[in-house]
Design goal:
Blueprint: H1 13-27, H2 31-51, E1 55-57, E2 64-66, H3 73-88, H4 91-108, H5 111-122, H6 125-138, H7 145-160, H8 165-177, H9 188-201, H10 216-242, H11 260-282, H12 305-308, H13 310-328, H14 335-347, H15 350-368, H16 371-386, H17 390-405, H18 411-428, H19 433-446, H20 457-465, H21 473-501
């Protein structure tokens, strides 16, 4: 796809830099080839690290972590026997494919097109970007499903208003990924990180207690700040590079009139969706509710059926209305029609499946080498020994979390290592565990969209290729870099304002002890 060519005088230095990032990035080999090459890089480095005798003590468990030589006979045998499970166990694979059973059917039967036309017509064009960013930020409340469902929907919304689909897709992805630690509601992520923060704080103060809502006030403010900032970034840096340029025709006709039968079908599909939501809500009510964790009674616990079953629930949220729409619209007459739509929705996932295979093997090798844990522990020890104090220390900690997030994808895995080091350390300096946790969450979010090893980077790349067959890693990184940079600045300024004004981050979430 050719980008809009402005003269060098009219392009800002930063825009020329982004174009350069894209050109260089897209000259790299295909992402599948890169991930295959990284297998050998990780194996070679693991051998060097293991032979060097590099070790570290895990602050949470007290166990010694040593580098694992992936070139050893045992590790090569283990890798050979685990290739299939590395692929099938790649987290986004099942999530994407299962979600597409519902979302794909709803799209192929035509429901998504009609629904998005109806929605787009009611939102003023000037507010579409803000709405996409805001919904993207809120989408992290439904766990990882937000990464899979919302970006492709945003692409269709932008087509509907006559704009480039990648502008909308990247805005949505930035909202979900870079805004991962902002929301208006308490989610499973809040419970996960608090589960490591509170025990770490009890190392210093055995009587310390708090709740998953310790950052809630800050998260609410962040949601609106990032929506405004994300809208600015989209219109200032993303739209000029994509809007007005050609893209692959996917058959979506934004100008086609909605027929009375389609309106009727959409109405019945909406009723079916509402009934499904009511049933799910009813299953969440009561002391022994079906959707609650039987041990804790919480809806937000990772093991709670509501959280653990979020992917199939979202699949049904699309599948059931999709079938109802298809029947009423006359596009589904029997079970064979449903099966054909499911086959068709899966047919386009071939390139993603190949990419998931290569990425899954790389992540499995990287984790097996223990290099991710060694990097996090050694880096944390280095930052601890630097000797910084005050707000500068907090900023340095955010930067460190940003850096580590480029190499270790799991939020909870990183915090399991870092919380026992930094929460007690900052408590001794007079800072509350809530502040340390929030600083970590900012760093953990900001570099999500630009990290090639981020779990959902291959997902967004596969989606982008639907509209630009030449899209590569450079396309994604150049589009996401402005979000990461400006979100970082905005979030740091906001955190410093809270610190200087001594504004609580949430219930039991004071800045200072």
């Amino acid at each position: 796809m050719e980008k809009k060519q402005a003269t060098a005088e009219k392009q800002s230095l930063f825009m020329r830099f982004l174009n350069g990032v894209e050109r260089v990035g897209n000259k790299l080999p295909d992402p599948v080839t890169i991930f295959f090459a990284l297998w050998f890089v990780v194996i070679a480095i693991s051998a060097i690290v293991a032979k060097s005798g590099v070790t570290a003590v895990h602050p949470g468990t007290g166990e010694t972590v040593a580098g694992v030589n992936l070139l050893s006979k045992e590790q090569l045998q283990l890798f050979l026997s685990s290739i299939v499970t590395n692929f099938t166990g790649f987290a986004p694979l099942g999530l994407v494919l299962v979600t597409m059973l519902g979302a794909g059917l709803a799209e192929k039967v035509g429901m998504m097109e009609i629904m998005l036309k109806s929605v787009a017509s009611k939102i003023p064009n000037k507010l579409v970007t803000a709405a996409v960013i805001f919904i993207g930020i809120m989408a992290n409340a439904v766990a990882d499903a937000g990464f899979v469902v919302f970006p492709p929907l945003a692409a269709l919304i932008y087509i509907g208003i006559g704009r480039h689909p990648l502008t909308g897709m990247f805005a949505a992805y930035a909202g979900v990924a870079a805004g991962f630690s902002a929301n208006l509601i308490i989610s499973m992520l809040d419970a996960l990180v608090a589960g490591f923060t509170i025990p770490a704080a009890q190392i210093i103060d055995p009587n310390y207690t708090s709740t998953p809502a310790m950052n809630y006030y800050f998260l609410i403010v962040s949601c609106f700040i990032l929506t405004a900032v994300g809208t600015f970034v989209t219109e200032r840096y993303i739209a000029p590079r994509f809007d007005g340029t050609p893209y692959e025709d996917t058959g979506y006709d934004a100008n086609a009139e909605v027929t009375p039968q389609e309106k009727k079908a959409l109405k019945y599909a909406g009723i079916a969706m509402l009934i499904f939501v009511v049933i799910v809500v009813a299953l969440c009510i009561g002391p022994n509710a079906f959707m609650k964790d039987k041990e804790t009674g919480s809806l937000l616990a990772p093991a709670a059926p509501l959280m653990a079953g979020m992917v199939p629930l979202i699949t049904l949220l699309f599948f059931i209305p999709g079938v109802v729409y298809g029947v009423v619209a006359g596009k589904i007459k029997n079970d064979k029609d449903i099966a054909a739509l499911l086959y068709e929705s899966m047919a386009g996932m071939g390139s993603y499946i190949v990419l998931a295979f290569a990425a899954g093997q790389f992540l499995a090798l990287f984790n097996a080498s223990n290099m991710s844990s060694l990097l996090a522990i050694k880096g944390a020890e280095w930052l601890k020994n630097v000797g910084l104090t005050g707000p500068l220390l907090i900023v340095a900690f955010v930067v460190f979390a940003c850096f580590i997030n480029m190499f270790v994808g799991s939020c909870s895995a990183k915090w399991a290592i870092m919380a026992p080091i930094f929460v007690p350390m900052f408590m001794l300096l007079g800072y509350s565990p809530a502040l340390t946790q929030m600083a970590y969450r900012i760093g953990d979010s900001i570099t999500n969209p630009i990290s090639p090893i981020f779990t959902y980077f291959p997902v967004i790349l596969a989606y982008a290729k639907k509209y630009d067959k030449n899209a590569g890693m450079g396309t994604i990184m150049s589009a996401m870099l402005p979000f990461s940079i400006i979100f970082f600045i905005a979030w740091i300024v906001l955190l410093l304002i809270f610190m200087i004004a001594n504004i609580p981050l949430g219930p039991n979430g004071n800045i200072y002890l």
